[in-house]
Amino acid sequence: MERSVRLSPLEKEQQLSYFETEVMNVLNWLATFSPDEEGGITRLLYTEGWLKTQQALQLKMDSCGLVTEFDNVGNLFGRLLGEDENAPSIITGSHIDTVIQGGKYDGAYGIAAGLLALEYLQRRYGKPKRTLEIVSLCEEEGSRFPMAYWGSGSIVGKRNFEQIVHLQDSQEVFFADAMQRCGFGEGIGRESRRDDIAAFIEVHIEQGAVLEQDGFSIGVVETIAGQRRMKFEVIGESNHAGTTPMPMRRDALEGVSMMILKLRQEALRIGAPLVATVGRLQVLPNVPNVVPGKVIFTVDARHADGQALDRFCQWVMKEFATLAAERQLEIEGTEWFREEPVPMNERLKQHMDDVCGQMGISSKRMISGAGHDAQMFEHICPTAMLFVPSRRGISHSPEEYTRPRELAVGVLVLTELLYRLGYEGEEL
Amino acid sequence: MERSVRLSPLEKEQQLSYFETEVMNVLNWLATFSPDEEGGITRLLYTEGWLKTQQALQLKMDSCGLVTEFDNVGNLFGRLLGEDENAPSIITGSHIDTVIQGGKYDGAYGIAAGLLALEYLQRRYGKPKRTLEIVSLCEEEGSRFPMAYWGSGSIVGKRNFEQIVHLQDSQEVFFADAMQRCGFGEGIGRESRRDDIAAFIEVHIEQGAVLEQDGFSIGVVETIAGQRRMKFEVIGESNHAGTTPMPMRRDALEGVSMMILKLRQEALRIGAPLVATVGRLQVLPNVPNVVPGKVIFTVDARHADGQALDRFCQWVMKEFATLAAERQLEIEGTEWFREEPVPMNERLKQHMDDVCGQMGISSKRMISGAGHDAQMFEHICPTAMLFVPSRRGISHSPEEYTRPRELAVGVLVLTELLYRLGYEGEEL
After folding, report:
1. Which residue from A24, A398, B61, B77 could staple onto B66, CB 3.0 to 4.6 Å apart?
2. Number of cross-chain residue pairs from A and B with Cβ atoms under 8 Å apart
C-alpha cells in the first residue's frame, strides 16, 4: 500500500488532466495522416499515408529522447535506455494500421499511451533500471493483404518473408513490392525477430460495451479468446414462388433461419464468454419470386476455453446436420480458421489489479473476444493487456469513441505499471 | 355424351400419337432460333433471335393456310376464318419470349398447341362457324425491359406506348428504339388494341409439381392467384462478433430469421392456395466477424382470394413489427407490387371439365400461382387456361421438361374445346 502514497489525490488529478489533453493531441495528430473521404481513418500497411505516419512517429519519439529504430518489416521502436542495457526490455505499444474506414483509437491509442507514459517517466524519474520501449507495430488488421499480425508475428517468429511471397492486395500489388517501396524487406535493416523482450503490455480500446455497461474504467484481460470460423453451404430446391405449395418446398433459407436461431439459443444457454455469430450470408438465386435453392453462410465462434469451444463447434456441426436432414436439405460445413485461446500472464494481471486497486480505479478481469498483437507476444514473453471503455462498443468505424478522461486513466495505469516494472524492479 | 362417340379409342390414340410427334417438332424447331450458351433458350423481346422466331412462325402459319398479321407491337396472329367473318374471334396462344436462360416449353408450348389445333381442325373439318385465331404474343416475362405482359396488355388496353417512353434495358437501349429496329412501334402497322375477341384460351405448362404429384393430366385453372410483394428493412446494431456478449446484441439477422420461420409457419397453418416466400435477402455489412446491423428482404405472397391475401399481409406487417420490437430492432415494410386474383371464366372451365371427362382424361381444377397472359385477356373477354404437368415443377430453367405424351394430351383437349366452340357453336 505504500505506493499509493506516491501520488496524492491532487497529483493524480493533475496527471490525469495532463494525460487527457496530451493523449487527444497525439490521437488527433495521428489521425491527420490517413484521413479517408468518409470521415474515418484508412491507414493500410505500406501505403504512403502509413509510411508518413511511421516517419512522423519516429521524429516524435526522437524528440522525446527515445532511441528510435525500424526493423526490416517496418515496426518502429523507441527505447528509453535503462541502467542495465543488456537486460531484456519491457515493451509497450500497439499497431499503427487501421481497417478500411476505421476510427482513430483502435491501435493508435496503445501507441499514444506508451509514448506518453515513457515521455512522462523519463521527464519525472529519469533513466529506468531496465530498458523500456514503445513499439508502433506495422500491421495487425489484415486489411490490405490476406495476412494479419504481420508486425507482432514477425517479432515473435510466427510470420516470415516466405509466407508473403504470393500475397497480393485487391489491386494486385505484391506484398514484397509494397514493402520495398516503403524501404523495408528481407535484408533491409535490422531483423525483426527478437529474443530480448522481458514483457509486452498492450493498451487498447475494448471494442465491446462491457466496461461501459458495467461501469468500470479498466479491463484487465484474463485471456484472449480462441476462435473458430466455419462455412456452411445448405442446398434445397430452387422453385417458383407462385406455383410451389408450401409443403412441397425445400427452402434452404428456411432451414438456415432455424440454424441461426438455434445457434443463438445454444450460445445464450452456455453463456459468456462464448459468443457465436452468423455474419455473412448469401442466398441463391436471391430473386423475390424464387424459393431459395442455396444459402452459404459463416459461423464465427469464440471462447476463452479451447475445449469448450470445440465442444460447441461439434454441437453446431451435429445440430445443423440434424436440422438440414429434417427438412431434406443437404449441408456441408467446414472449419476454415482456428485460433486457440491465449491466457495473459498471471503475474502481470495481478500487478494491474494492484495498480488499479491502489489508485482507486475501478477495474474488472475480462475476456478479449477480439484478437490482438498481445496474443502473438505471449508466445515469447509474459504479456498483458488492458482495456479502456468503447462507447456503445463501436469499433472499426469512424464512430469509434472513448472519452478523453477514460483514455487518460488507461495511460495513468500503464505509466504506474511501467514505473513499478522498470524503475522499482518489481518482479515480472 | 354423344360427342365422345366422335372419337373412338383408336382415333384418340392416333390423334395423340400424331400430336406427340408434331408438338415436339414445333418446340424443337422454335428452340433452334434463340439458343444460349448454357443450353437454354434466351429469347428476349425485340432481339434478333426474337424477330427471326416471329418471322419463321409467320411463314409456318401461312403454310398452314392461316391469314397472318402482325400488330404494331409485334404480336403475331394467324386466323382460320370462319363462316361469319364479323363474329368476334376465339383466340388461343401464348407468349414467344423467354426469361434469360429459360426452357423451351414456357410460352412456346401454348403457341405450338394452338398452331397444331388449328391446323388439325382446318384439315379435318374445314371452315369453322366463327373465326379461330392463334396468337404468338410478343412479350410476357418482363426479362429485357422492366415491363411485363406487353403483348397481351397492349391487346386489352392495359399497356400503351406512353408507358414505355423512358424504359431502357440493362444495356441502356430504349424500348422504343429496340421495337422500331424490329419494324414495330406507334403508327407502324395495325393498332394492337382489340375489341373483337369472343374468348381467349391459353395452354401452358404448370410450372409447379401439383399435377405430377397428384397424377393428373390436365389442370383446369380456377383462378390466377393475386400477388403482393413487400420489402422489409430491419435495423439492429452492427457490432464486433468477438467483443459483444450475446445478450447485448441487436442482431438484425437473428430477428429476420424468426420472421422467416413465423411467415412459413403461418402460411402452412392457413394452407393452400396461400404461398409466401422470402426469396431475396441481403445482409449488411455481411462480414464473418461482424454482427449483422441491417437486413433487407422481400416477401412474395399469393392467394386466389384477394381479401384473404390482404388479411395475411396485414398479419405479416403486424407480426414482423412485434418480432422486431421484442428484439429492439427497427423495421420498415412497404408493399411495392400488388396484383388482384383473376378468376377464369366459369363456363369455359365447365367446357374444359366436360371435354376431359368425356374423353377420359384426368383433370383437376387448380390455382395458378404464376401470372399469365390469360389474366390480361380476362379483362375484356371470357378466358380460360389449361395446364399440363411440369417435371418436378421446374421452370424458367433449361431443365424445364414435360413428356411429349403429356404435351399431346393438352393439344388434344384444346383441339376438342376449339371444335366445340368454333364448329359446333357451343355457347361461350
Report:
1. B61
2. 202
Residue B428 lies inside a defined structural domain of this protein = no
Q: Is A101 on the interface with B (CB under 8 A)?
A: no
- pLDDT given for residue A342 in this prediction: 98
Quickly list DSSP for A28-76: HHHHTTSB-TTSSB---TTSHHHHHHHHHHHHHHHHTT-EEEEBTT--E
Q: Is the CB of B395 inside 8 Å of chain A's CB atoms?
A: yes
Query: Hey, are the CB atoms on B289 and A277 less than 8 Å from each other?
Result: yes
**CB contact B334 to A (< 8 Å):** no
Q: Tens of pLDDT along A379-426?
A: 999 999 999 999 999 988 899 999 999 999 999 999 999 999 999 988
A71-125 pLDDT per residue, tens: 999 999 999 999 998 999 999 999 999 999 999 999 999 999 999 999 999 999 9
A292, B302: Cβ pair inside 8 Å? no
**Is the same domain home to B209 and B293?**
no
Q: Which CATH number do you get for residue B291?
A: 3.30.70.360
- What is the arithmetic mean of pLDDT over B420-428? 90
| A204/A268 Cα distance (integer angstroms) | 27
Tell me, what amino acid is at B1?
Answer: M
Same structural domain for residues A87 and A192?
A: yes
Kindly report the average pLDDT of chain A as a whole number: 95
* A395 and chain B in contact, CB less than 8 A: yes
Nearest neighbour of B240 by CB, restricted to A208, A281, A283: A208
Number of structural domains, chain B? 2
* CA distances in angstroms from B72 to A86, A213, B152, B159, listed in the order given: 94, 70, 13, 13
pLDDT exceeds 70 at position B1: no
- Report whether B223 contacts B370 (CB < 8 A): no
Q: Which residue of B has its CA nearest to A295?
A: B281
Question: Taking CB atoms and an 8 Å cutoff, what residues of chain B touch A286?
Answer: 279-282
Rounded CA-CA distance A302/A224 in Å is 10
Statement: residue B345 has pLDDT above 50: yes
Same domain assignment for residues B220 and B269 = no
Q: What is the mean pLDDT of residues B18-44?
A: 95
Alpha-carbon distances, residue A42 vs A25, A58, A145, B289 (angstroms): 19, 20, 14, 19
Burial state string for A243-268 with b = 16 or more CB within 10 A and e = fewer than 16: bbbbebbbbbbbbbbbbbbbbbeebe
Domain that holds residue A319: 226-339
Query: A31 and A143 in one domain?
Result: yes
Using CB atoms and an 8 Å cut-off, which of residues 204-263 of chain A contact chain B?
206-210, 213, 225, 227, 229, 239-248, 251, 253-254, 256-258, 260-261
Nearest CB partner across the interface for A242, out of B272, B281, B370: B370
CB contact under 8 A, A248 and B300: no
B277–A370: do the CB atoms touch at under 8 Å? no
Q: What is the pTM of this model?
A: 0.89
A140 and A105 in a common domain? yes
**Looking at the predicted structure, is the pLDDT value of residue B6 above 70?**
no
Over the stretch B54-81, which tens digit does the pLDDT of each residue have?
999 999 999 999 999 999 999 999 999 9
Q: Residues A159, A110: one domain?
A: yes
pLDDT at B4 over 50: no
What average pLDDT score do residues B6-34 get?
93
Alpha helix stretches (DSSP H) within A300-345: 306-326
Question: Measured between alpha carbons, how far is A284 from A238 in angstroms, rounded to an integer?
Answer: 8
Provide, as residue numbers in chain B, all residues whose Cβ is less than 8 Å from the Cβ of A242. Answer: 207-208, 225, 227, 275, 300, 302, 368-371
Do the chains contact at B289 and A279, CB–CB below 8 Å?
yes
For residue A304, name the pLDDT band (cuts at 50, 70, 90): very high
Contacts of residue B371 in chain A, CB cutoff 8 Å? 242
